[in-house]
Amino acid sequence: MSGASAAIAADTPHGAAPAAGQSSRRARRASFAWGFGALALALLVLSPVVSLVIAAAQGSGELWPHLLAHVLPQAMRETALLLAGVGLLVVGLGAGAAWLVTAYEFPGRRWLEAGLLLPMAVPTYIVAYAYLDLMHPIGPVQTALRGVLGYARPRDLVLPDLRSLPGCILLLGFVLYPYVYLPTRALFLMQAANLVEAARMLGRSPASVFLRVALPMARPAIALGASLALMEALNDIGAAEFLGVRTLTVQVYATWVNRSDLAGAAQIALVMLVAVAALVAVERRARRGRGFAGTAQRSRAMARTPLRGWAPAGAMALGLVPVAIGFLIPASYLAQAAATRIARTGFPETILPEIGNTLLYAGLATAIAALLGVLVACAPRLVSERFGPALIRVASLGYALPGAILAIGLLGPLALADTAVSAALQATLGSAPALIGLGTGSALVIAYLIRFLAVSVGTCEAGLARVPPSLPDAARMLGRGPTATLRHVQLPLTWPAALSGALLVFVDCVKELPATLLLRPLNVETLATHLYGEAARGTYEDGTIAALLIVAVGLIPVAILLRLGAPHADGRANRRES
Amino acid sequence: MIRSETRSADATPRLELHEVSLRFGATRALDAVSLQVRAGEIIALLGDSGCGKSTLLRAIAGLERPDAGEIRLDGTVVSGGREAVPPEARGVGLMFQDYALFPHLTVAENVRFGLHGQSRAQAKDVATARLEQVGLADRAGDYPGTLSGGESQRVALARALAPGPRILLLDEPFSNLDRRTRDRVRADTLSVLRATATTTLLVTHDPEEAMMLADRIALMRIGRIVQTGSGEDLYQRPVSRFAARFFGALIEIAGHCRDGRVATPFGPIPAPGFAEGTTVLACLRPDAISLAPPGEGLPGRIVDRTFLGASAILEIAVDSLDVPVALAVPCSDTHAPGDTVHLSLSDTGSFVFDAAAD
Fold first, then answer.
1. CB A550 within 8 A of CB A532
2. Contact B78 A16 (CB under 8 A)
3. Is B112's Cβ below 8 Å from some Cβ in A?
């Protein structure tokens, strides 16, 4: 019998009392540590927003009327149009593609089902970067067109300029639609069967079934996916800037970088936060809706309608359009351009330190996020059922903050921290380096951490939730305390989820552009900032290699999603995985 | 391995519940439950789903914390007042309805999980012995995912018994098995429990299972224990109509108490303890009714006959009863629908309850 049990079994009437007293003292100490940690985390996550409010309230003096008159109205209009356009496009592409691969059967359907996820691997600034070069007047596409049509000079054939709001909408839409495709397809797989078959039996045509039954039914999933896609669009800084669209994000960045006006940038950022809050509200509502949908009748995969004649080829061609525009064309162009570059001038030397920097900052942030993610996700089980979920919500707030806003918001707190640390070191050591936070890249790691902690927490939480509650209870009944239970039962069963969460964080960090641009130490380049620099200058030297590397890393989450979605591929709807 | 010592019946009870209450929001899951379990006893908590029996089990295990009342193990308070000994320190075993085998550990590792205080070799010996006891020593290296339902149940039993718990709690231990497996596994489980003299509290909704396994049955309803006793006590001397109904169909006849008796079509039944004129309900067990020689009992007409192999069920309509009487007869009985038969009532198997009570 274990020591603790033996203590109870002892014949003394109060045999259990010492053990209980000890454990409650330990519990008090533990809950104090948890409370302290939680407070620190909340402070960290909330500090950018608080500092933005403070900075904005200080006022930018004479600049504010200028911003109000000339910058904000245009930025708000362009942002609203961009979001509206991207929203329409991702919903159309995402839901349409999801319906195509769940409602119809044709040769190659499974390949298409997986391939439709590929554009997720291409960050918005890279798709813009690739197409700008590809569609350049003396780029391959226009040159070939002129050859075919017999024009001699670039000015004879004038195509609509990609560098415009419609161009930006188009490119963003074609890389962001998987956010809608993924949940919508899962929802169709989970529950379309009965309702769709019922609609067919009532004499509805396939088109009518899609518009009147499937689409309204998928509304929660579509809303969820669209709000996530729009958050990405709002976060984007590269594509919009390369394509000459002056969105709020671009203006926040420009106001700080070009005018060094923190207050002005903060004011624009606060306007942006309103848009973010609206998107978060939509997402929350959609998640609630999804929970409801998920508890409906037992899932059964829908019988797909086989296509005959020329229809299969048509379906495949239609389905390949977003894959081609969002992934195949830009990725193969980047691969070809990178190969040419390497063949001509060899592997550029600067790229190695850039890879090193990218791995260093992303790796550090990932390690910390993974650890914190597990701890935070475990809080409801270890500490208390009321405090834990609140901690999870706080830790997940950062995901809603666009990178540029987060970076601007962090400047104030980081400067404060730097001053404090500096003063402390000065007092104790007599000398101190300045700018420990902003100068060393720890600022960047902190920003990554705040922004992507939600990913790590979310995947760990989902992994833990998948462990049936009777398993930890069983471990307790077999004499293990909460910590040992977590270590021996819940964590071993959760680590695959935690690992995939960490991978996702890593990839997000590698792809992140706006915060990296703003918070990296002087003269430090990562793959993403190198690419941005070249595109901003209009040169495309080694940028293609960096872009290709980022896309390659971006394929990791696609692979994870495909593995998670494997049961779907067999036509068996698996509710938990989706 | 030192098992906790089995005390004689007159010593401190192994488990003592004193007015244990627990609310979930507005629902009163446990309402002042009191119960004593002696060492070596097997007790069944019997009741419909939602009556609080599983909650009571979890409260004893320490997985739920009661709002009021006291739980003592071998005389030591483990729950009550400000005391709440955590589940891992109670020395209580619990076998879950879904078995809760750890999918990432082998069968042997599962059984050893509760033996972490012992040396490796010792733990291995105990685990092997337990697995042999349930006949699964050859599956020690397999993962739970490869086991059948019956095998999983036996592994779960071996795992729960391995640390030598002072009391073993079984939550609907056989409900996940199909009927054929269930009968065999039930018998095997009982023999292991008896062989190890394990004090056991088992939760079930099946009165037959409770009677088959338990020395005593505690019948629960809406968070309360309504009657405790042997299977025979509960079947033959139910304290309420609910208790009587739980163990089998009843023929219910409303009437009034006259001279300490109540009139039924089968003749008067004694109704001791009721005031003159009280509206009462006479409840008869169908098995207290038998075929009587012609002319002696209550006449009735057979309306249906269902053949069940070794026996047959006759449905007999009686003029003064709303519902036909279902009577089991040997299969050799040749009565057919349309025949008239006579029914008589034996001395036991009829109860009288206040019609106003449940």
1. no
2. yes
3. no
- What is residue A563's predicted lDDT score, i.e. its pLDDT? 75
Between A166 and A559, the more confident residue is A166
Among A234, A229, A231, CA closest to A76? A234
**Cβ A168 vs Cβ A243: under 8 Å:** yes
Flag whether residue A371 sits within 8 Å of chain B, measured between CB atoms: no
Q: What are phi and psi of B214, to 5 degrees?
A: -100, 145
| B77 near A CB under 8 A | yes
* pLDDT one-digit tens code per residue, A405-421: 999 999 888 888 888 88
A15 in contact with B, Cβ within 8 Å: yes
Note the ipTM here: 0.81
pLDDT (0 to 100) of residue A23: 53
Q: pLDDT tens-digit profile of B210-244?
A: 999 999 999 999 999 999 999 999 998 999 999 99
**Is B91 an interface residue toward A (CB < 8 Å)?**
yes
> Pairing between strand B279-284 and B251-258?
antiparallel
Q: What is the mean pLDDT of residues A526-540?
A: 85
pLDDT at residue B5, rounded to an integer: 46
Place of tokens 């599956």: B139
- Chosen for mutation from A5, A466, A470, A477 (greatest number of chain B CBs closer than 10 Å) is A477
Q: What is the DSSP letter of A61?
A: T
Nearest CA to B326 among B341, B305, B351?
Answer: B305
Chain A environment of B96 (Cβ under 8 Å):
470, 473-474
Rg over alpha carbons for chain A, rounded to the nearest Å, is 27
Question: β-strands B200-204, B167-171: how paired?
Answer: parallel
Asked if the model's pLDDT at residue B350 lies above 50, the reply is yes
Asked if residue B37 has pLDDT above 90, the reply is: yes
Domains, chain A, with CATH or none: 37-58+347-538 (1.10.3720.10)
Mean pLDDT of the B121-130 span: 92
Please tell me if residue B111 touches chain A, with a CB cutoff of 8 Å: no
User: What residues are paired with B354 via a beta bridge?
Assistant: B280
- Mean predicted confidence (pLDDT) in A129-148: 81
What integer is the mean pLDDT of B242-264? 88
Q: Do A481 and B91 touch (CB under 8 A)?
A: no
CA–CA separation, A300 and A514 (whole Å): 43
Total count of residues recorded for chain B: 358
Which residues are CB-neighbours of B60 under 8 A, at least 6 positions away? B15, B17, B71, B92, B167, B169, B201
Domains annotated for chain B, with CATH where assigned, are 15-244 (3.40.50.300), 249-354 (2.40.50.140)
Task: Provide the angle, in degrees to the nearest 10, between the axes of the packed helices A165-176 and A178-201.
Answer: 70
Distance between CA atoms of residues A499 and A485, nearest Å: 20
Q: Look at the block and give the residue holding tokens 């969820």.
A: A224
Interface contact A476-B83, CB threshold 8 A: no
Angle at A460 between CA A558 and CA A520, to 5 degrees: 70
pLDDT at B316 over 60: yes
